[in-house]
Each structure stands twice: as C-alpha cells, then as structure tokens.
Amino acid sequence: MEYLGQYKAVYKAKSGCEDILAKSQDGGIVTSMFAYALETGIIDGAIVAGPGSEPYKPEPMIATTVEELFEARGTKYSISPNLALIKEATRSYGLDKIGIVGTPCQIQAVRKGQLYPIGLRDVPDKIALAIGIFCMENFPYQGLFQMVEDHCATKIDNVTKMDIGKGKFSVYTERGVNSQIPLKVTHKYEQPGCHVCLDYVSNMADISTGSVGTPDGWSTVFVRSAAGEAAFNKAVEAGWIIAESMDGVKPGLELVEKLATEKITKNQAYLEHRLHKDHPALKPLRNPYI
Amino acid sequence: MGLLDKLKGLLFGNETVREGKQDAKPGVKPADTKVEQKPIITKPKEEKPVADKITVGHVHMSGCTGCLVSLADNYEGLLTILDKYADLVYCLTLADVRKIPKMDVALVEGSVCINDECSMEEILETRENATIVVALGGCACYGNTTRFCRGGQQNQPQHEGFLPIGDLIKVDVYIPGCAPTPQQIRNVCLMAYLLLKGNDEQKALATAYLTPLMNLAAAGTEACGCDLMTEVINQGLCCGCGSCAAVCPVRAVTMQFGKPQIERDLCIKCGACYAQCPRSFFSFDVCGQYESITNLIGEVMKP
C-alpha cells in the first residue's frame, strides 16, 4: 500500500446527520467532521471552499459556525486556493485552532508551511485539523465551464451537482442526471500543475476521505495522525459519523490503491519526461521535488 | 552579554516576586501553620553549563532590525535556545561584544552597503569567522527593499550601492521573507545545532531539512513575485493552493481564477512567496515526517 501513505485506520463511513447527507457529495465526512469539531471546540474555524461569485466557482472562506459550513457542502471541481486564508484566519478572524480542507497538494502546502514557515508567522502550531480529499486532478474554472456548458450542453446555473466516478463526469440538474461524458474528454482541461502531483489520497492529512472504494452514499476514510485519530473517534462516539470496517467492502481499498498507483506512476513518468533525457537538445524543466 | 543577562535576570526575577507574593498571602492560612518557603530557584543558574552548545552570532548589516526582533519574538523559546543549544556570542543589539568572534553560525541581517568600508570589512570577517553563514531575511538573501535604494538620503547621501550578502561572499543557508518568522529562525537554529552536535540520525534529519534552504542560497540573489510566474506557472507547476498569497507581507499577491496575480509595483522582493510555494521545493522525506518533527521541536523547546 505504498501509495496510500501511512494510516492508523481506514473506515467506510458516512455522516450521522441527515441534514448533511441531503446535500453532501458522498458521505458528508468533511462537513460532519468540521461541524463536530466546531461544536466541541476542537477547532474554532475552518477554511473551506465556499460558494463564489459564479455558480460552481469556489472561493475559499472561513466558516466559524455550522451554518456557514453548510454553505460550502458538496464538491466543486475547480481550484479553491484555501491556503490563501491560512494566515488571515489567525489574524482578522483570530483563530487559534484552524481546520482546513484541501486537495493533496494543498495539504502538502500546509505541512511545508508548518515545517518551513517562511512567511507564516505564528501559524504552524495553530493548525488543529487538516482534512485531505482524494484528488485525481483539478480544473481551472474556465475548463470546468466548458466541460459543463459545451460538452454536457447544460447551463451551469441549472446544475445541482457534479460528480466524477466510474470513469465518467456527470452533471445533475433538478431532473436528475442530465449529461455524462467520459473522463477522457475532460483530460485536456486539467490544470497542468496536477500532472506533477505524486499524492492521490492526501497522505499528509490528519484525516483523508473520498468516495473511491466504498458504495454510493459512503466515503472511504483514512485516519492518519494522532490529532486525526482523536477527533475522528470522538466524532464517531458522538454519533456525528457512522464508521464501519472496510473488510469485505466492494470495491474496497483495492480500487483506491489501483487509482493511486495509476496516478502516481503516470505522473512520475511525466516528471521523468520533463527532464528531457531523450532529447538532449532540450533543456530540462524544473523538478520541485528533492 | 550585558543586556541579555539583564533580560534573563528580569524575567526570572519577576517570577520570584510573583511566586513569593502568593506564598505570603496573609489571612489565607491558619496562623499556626508553618508556611514552608519553597525555594524558587532550586538550581543555581548555571549549575551545569552545557558544554556542547553551538555559538551563534547576529551580524547587523543594512537592515531594519526586524529580523532580530523576529528572533527575539520566540520569547521564552529564545531563552530555551540560549540555555540549551546556543550561545549568542555576537549581537550588537543584545550582547556587549564589539569584534566579530569565531562562531559556528552567523545570522546576517541586512544587505551590504558597498560604499561603506566598515560594512565591507565586517561581511568579510563574518565569512572568515563563521562556519555557517545564514542570510537572515529578505535583505540579506535578495536585497529586499534595499534593492530600491539609489542614494541621496540623509545622513549618508553617498550610500547608494547595496548588495545582498550572497553577491559578496559565499552564503550557506537562506531564510527569506520580510520579516522571517520566529518559528523559521528557531527551526534553522535547532537544525544547525543538530547538524553540528547531534548523532548520525539527527545529522541526517538536519541535512534533509536544511538542504532546500541551502539550495535557495545556491540559486542566486535575485527574487521577485515574478518568480511565481517564471519558476512555477511558466514551468507548468502551479497547483493553485494560495500559499504565496497568504505569505506576501505587502499583499502584492492575490488569487484570481485559482492562480496568483502579482502586483509587481507593490512587490518588495523578499522572496517569501516563492520559498513558501510547495512547488518551489518540496521534500517528501522532511514533510512526510511533519508529525514527528513537530513533536521533536515541541519536546526540545520545553524550558
């Protein structure tokens, strides 16, 4: 399980709160965890991808109440620079215990920021709970817009949910699934920076979660750090989250591992390709990893 | 180390007064109960001088002292560092030493005014006397605001040429940013201690930690918000996380459509945005162990 990182436990889980499940992407894990953490003081605010000026254009926001948290439910398949608020959260919002949700690259940025706080004065010890999501790739807003409006022939204002799963990008409106396109079509709209990413399941998060591996309506949850373990176990005890064993769950960890391996080996090959060893006339491109 | 000792004395002294008062609260305890006066300081102050501390100096070139204030802003953490891991052997502001002595680590703040002979001598002496030279803060690393100097100011109008120290001497480690953060300076000091005094395992950790900062030092003396474009976006590496926007001290970086937008006229060239970017450098070896390293730092910083 090399590509799944270190973890203390893995669960099939979903929210224990019907309100959250009603508008959640899958199991509603992120919203439930933060809602529980907010209610119990594990965190005093969470940086989440809130609604932006245009439909499905996420804008980072700091939720300090469960109501605000609910505004950010559901996945938006575009870039939300959540890290941009990490210092502001400790300043004008005065947070001492920050929750942050992010893609694997954003969680990497959180950890780098904690160990190398070049410009993050007094921030490193204020990150209380970093929840990572599974992420294959992300799309710039214009790319997402084109996928929805051109390829799926759906007005983005009418979309009620978007989803990636089983090899398809699906767009839902009030009438249900409106349009589906094969993921292959979406590849050209991916953010280039995603192609050098070597993390699929947020290996450095306190808790990481995503839909892959568990049946519809559930999420796969990796509990990784001591802080993550403490918070998750308490949330389960308090009934905010229903967690079950992954044993015998189909498609299970095998699929998670398969996708992780696919993404990481593909991107490792791309990083190798960027060195232009086959083309001595081309100078190498920069490799960020040391 | 006049001021510094006084500072320590003041802090410990204050504690003595506070605790003494609590013990002697009148009317709380029955009169016949013997109030046992607890010795406040059980050990003499320097009972076991740590023999293998490293020596650290702060060299003040053309800078605003903000970097030094940042070092001091570790508060009691600074005292822990000075008690256990490092002796501050040179620091014009805090220690009464005039000549730059031999030392393990020189933290150099500020750029060098090449029109000032004294500065030129001092930067040379620093290099000759220090095993590791750390450029502390944007000015020493990249020039920062001193890049915009053009002379004509009182009271030294002829001082117009300012260079980052890396343009004059070989620099080993960079700590960019304006100001660099107390925690970053603390981490570098602790890692320098582990590198020079630790066991093999600790040395390996310190080397892994310091390597990216050494690479920054090797990469040159020019920084700008533009680096986000030339070294990250142009190279197809930006993941749109927003770290750069968070750390810019002058808010020259904003995120628009998921990518940094740089207001170049505002940029002071401190180098924080690029150094903080997860795609400027990223070490899985170091960041993957964030939990144990954070615990380690917490442990060793206990007073």
Write down the domain tally of chain A.
2
The best one-word shape of chain B is globular
Instruction: Write down the overall mean pLDDT of chain B.
Output: 88
Largest sheet of chain A: 8 strands, mixed
> Shape of chain A, please?
globular
Identify the strand order in the major beta sheet of chain A: 3-2-4-5-9-10-1-11
- What's the total count of β strands of chain B? 9
Could you name the CATH class of the domain at 54-149 and 159-223 in chain B? Alpha Beta
Sheet/helix structural class of chain B: alpha/beta
Instruction: Assign the CATH architecture of the domain at 54-149 and 159-223 in chain B.
Output: 3-Layer(aba) Sandwich
Walkthrough of the structure:
The complex is a heterodimer of chains A (290) and B (303). Chain A has 290 residues and is an alpha/beta fold. Chain A has two domains: 2-136 and 198-274, no CATH class; 139-189, Nuclear Transport Factor 2, Chain: A (Roll), CATH 3.10.450. Chain A contains eight helices and eleven strands. Chain A has helices at residues 18-22, 29-40, 66-71, 104-115, 141-151, 183-186, 226-237, 252-274; strands at residues 9-15, 45-51, 58-63, 98-102, 127-133, 161-165, 168-173, 176-182, 207-210, 219-223, 241-245. In chain A, strands 3-2-4-5-9-10-1-11 form an eight-stranded mixed beta sheet, with helices on both faces. In chain A, strands 6-7-8 form a three-stranded antiparallel beta sheet. In chain A, a hairpin with a 2-residue loop joins strand 7 (168-173) and strand 8 (176-182). The longest helix of chain A is centred in the C-terminal third of the chain and has 23 residues, at 252-274. The model of chain A has no long low-confidence stretch (mean pLDDT 95). With 303 residues, chain B is of the alpha/beta class. Chain B has a domain at 54-149 and 159-223: NADH:ubiquinone oxidoreductase-like, 20kDa subunit (Rossmann fold). Chain B is built from twelve helices and nine strands. Chain B has helices at residues 2-23, 66-72, 76-85, 117-129, 138-142, 182-197, 200-219, 227-233, 243-247, 272-276, 284-287, 290-300, and strands at residues 54-60, 86-91, 103-109, 112-113, 130-136, 162-163, 173-175, 253-256, 259-262. In chain B, the strands form three sheets. Chain B has a five-stranded parallel beta sheet with strand order 2-1-3-5-7, with helices on both faces. A two-stranded antiparallel sheet of chain B has the order 4-6. In chain B, a hairpin with a 2-residue loop joins strand 8 and strand 9 (259-262). Mean pLDDT of chain B is 88; it is low at 14-25. The chains are: A alpha/beta (290), B alpha/beta (303). Chains A and B meet through helix 4 of A and helix 6, helix 7, helix 9, helix 10 and helix 11 of B.
